[in-house]
Amino acid sequence: MSVLSGKTIVLGVSGGIAAYKSAELVRLLVNSGAIVRVMMTRNATEFITPLTLQTLSSNPVATDTFSLTQESEIGHIRLADAADAIVIAPATADVIAKAAVGIADDIVTTVLLATRAKVAFAPAMNVHMYEHPTVAENLARLRSRGAVIVDPGEGALACGYEGKGRLADPAIIVAEIEKMLSAQDLAGENILVTAGPTQEPIDAVRFVSNRSSGKMGFAIARAAWRRGAAVRIVAGPSALATPYGVERIDTVTAAAMLSQTSSNFSWSTALVMAAAVADFRPANPARGKIKKDARGLRLEMESIADEMPRLAAKKGARLLIGFAAETGDLEANARAKLTAKGLDLIVANDVTREGAGFEVDTNIVTLIGSDGRSQSHPQMSKDAVADLILDRIAAIRAAKPKSTRAAKSSRLRAVR
Ligand code: CTP
User: Nearest Cα to 236, choosing from 263, 258, 220, 219?
Assistant: First the structure.
């Protein structure tokens, strides 16, 4: 279930050319399960019609504070109270200025003044307007009061200029709203995630790999950012898009993945090894392309050392979370790996079960902690599994008495 499921998001559209992109934003919010109520300034209705946004949101659109019919249906105070979050997208220099000083002369600015909900502004305007000190000061003022500012992107602007001022991608705005509505229980954590398969070369054009898609690791990275952590992902070859807010380090071979994991280990406060790292690689990869031979090909494979026990030896207060991809004896094998690798938590999945393991969007997992506690879960989305794993990280941190935490964090600083 998405964070936005059943949440009321009030979208305020102000009058700039980017108003047409609010249609896509409404669609994404509705697809995430949100109840979307749109309000528009009079100028916004010059750029996109209320009917478009009404149709996409399946809710009446408010354009007028004084319209008797609209007031009886969706009074501005009710709109302000019903909102779990308010997002102004696009936010023009004008609406930003009014919100900064508390002017309430239309439906959008009146609701902004009347609400206690969290508010985000996604500015979009000409680059010179965006860089004007007044706009910068107004945005800083809104930010200091707790509003989230979704920075505009750079590029060609509708006014013919190049520069910063394009409305942020609607998917980014949705990610920021999801973050706004999530408990920031991982704030202060630096979470390093490995994800995807590795590729071990046989020759110049062939490699040995596995069926991992990276979906589980990317889901963990996305959820950890949403819950307030700083996140780095060390990815093997994966076609997946980098989750917003996450720093991605691309690798190909197990050696490169493990070396990047080691070099980023000192930055981390928790390492989640979701990658399917190769255990063997061709011992002598050919430089060129191996020619076909009627007698076939024999490959000598060598073992790849597991980095986990070495990292565990210098973990300090860091949390180490591993996965166990099994095809039988799930719990016993996973417990053995938990101990051998020095982990705090292992996420075991039987990759032969339908709806679990590689390539699919769901997983069926058993979480086993170093305290021996084991929890088996039914089939669920990888996004939901990601949150379960992160819940355990948050719970381990919360269980530490404050004094121990302080001592551990100073020890962690010393390790850094
Ligand atoms: N792992 C690792 N380095 C390796 C191999 C695996 O850090 N060279 C990590 C994986 O990312 C995963 C955990 O170890 O978190 C377990 O991986 P898995 O493939 O289930 O087990 P293996 O240790 O490879 O053992 P086996 O192949 O015998 O099941």
Answer: 258
Q: What residue ranges do the domains of the chain occupy?
A: 8-180, 190-415
User: Ligand 1 pocket: which of 323, 339, 346, 385 to mutate (most atoms <8 Å of CB)?
Assistant: 323
Marked catalytic residue, from 159, 305, 340, 395: 159
**Intrachain domains 8-180 and 190-415 with the same fold:** yes
CATH T-level fold of 190-415: Rossmann fold (3.40.50)
Crossing angle of the two packed helices 50-57 and 22-31, in degrees rounded to 10: 10
Whose Cα sits closest to atom 27 in ligand 1? Answer: 279
Tokens of residue 258, six digits: 């493990």
* Ligand 1 binding site (Cβ under 6 Å of any ligand atom): 194, 254, 273, 275, 277, 279, 304, 306-308, 322-325, 337
- The third-level CATH classification (topology) of the domain covering 8-180 is Rossmann fold (3.40.50)
């504070």: which residue's tokens? 65
Q: Pick from 91, 152, 146, 151: which is nearest to 119 by CA? A: 146
324 bridge partner residues: 348
Residue 115, token pair as written in the block = 């609400």
Q: DSSP E strands: which ranges in 151-295?
A: 153-156, 162-166, 190-195, 200-201, 207-208, 230-235, 247-250, 270-273, 280-282
* Per-residue pLDDT reduced to its tens digit, 359-377: 889 999 999 999 999 999 9
The CA distance from 357 to 371, in Å, is 25
State pTM to two decimals: 0.91
**268 pLDDT tier (thresholds 50, 70, 90):** very high
Mutate to test the pocket of ligand 1, among 260, 306, 358 (most ligand atoms within 8 A of CB): 306
Distance set, CA 116 to CA 47, 70, 121, 352 (Å): 29, 22, 15, 49
Instruction: Sort strands 8-13 and 85-91 into parallel, antiparallel or unpaired.
Output: parallel
* Contact partners, residue 150, CB within 8 Å, separation at least 6: 89, 120, 121, 122, 123, 168, 172, 173, 176
- In 198-318, the DSSP E strands lie at 200-201, 207-208, 230-235, 247-250, 270-273, 280-282, 301-303
Q: Is 159 a catalytic residue?
A: yes
Dump pLDDT digits (tens) for 9-33: 999 999 999 999 999 999 999 999 9
